[in-house]
Amino acid sequence: xxxxxxxxxxxxxxxxxxxxxxxxxxxxxxxxxxLGEGVHPRILVDGMELAKTESLKFLETFxxxxxxxxxxxxxxxxxSLNTKIAPELANPLTEVVVDAVNCITRDGRIDxxxxxxxxxxxxxxxxxxxxxxxVLDHGGRNSDLPSRLENCYIMCLNVSLEYEKTExxxxxxxxxxxxxxxxxxxxxxxxxxxxxxxVEFKEKLCKGTNKNFVIINQKGxxxxxxxxxxxxxxxxxxxxxxxxxxxIPLACGGKMLNSIDDITEADLGFAKVVYE
Length: 276
Known about the structure:
Blueprint lengths: L1 H11 L4 H20 L4 H22 L7 H12 L5 H18 L43 E10 L19 H30 L5 E6 L5 H9 L2 E4 L4 H11 L3 E2 L11 E7 L1
Parallel strand pairs: 1-2, 1-4, 2-3
Antiparallel strand pairs: 1-5
């Protein structure tokens, strides 16, 4: 019975389960005294029902109506968090929690899966902070890539930009080094053409403006492709998680692209700042 009451409290309110358990335990302890004196359980249940009714009546007269604003939410969050964790961590987290929930609230609905908790291995828990944006646990894999860009077009790709061996086992024979170089160049050209197509598209959109370009790819980008992108001032992030590929269009606009043919500006998202 205590377990079911605590579960219901947690699902409906989200807090106060310990208080609930203690309260029920005390009621049962007092009930045990009366049962030992021969009082019928039905009378005890009726007494609890009366007490519940009177308590609810009192609460109706005692309560104050307040507008739900940020200050009230912070007070509620502080009250709840201080019963769970140390005050030096609870107090800074209070505003973080409230602002995070306010940030994702849409039309009165809250989807808590839109809040991601990311553990930073080299930081203290008291250094926790809210990032008003998307945090990706990926980084650029080329030393020449810029670490901060402003006014960025965001291209979400699901296209391989790396040289891949053929799935069918095949062999090539050549008679001199020139033929071998031509073969390597022709195999490489297939990937390079796709990268150059993206660079040309970036030049068309950003030339003469203060706009920048970021690619977030769910598949791989090999070192030669990263080199071409970095020379063009494009940040290329490879092997992004599928969940990030779904979130970025929601946050920045645009859509996930499975091909780089016939892409337009409407297919891209936009972000004011992207930094590492």
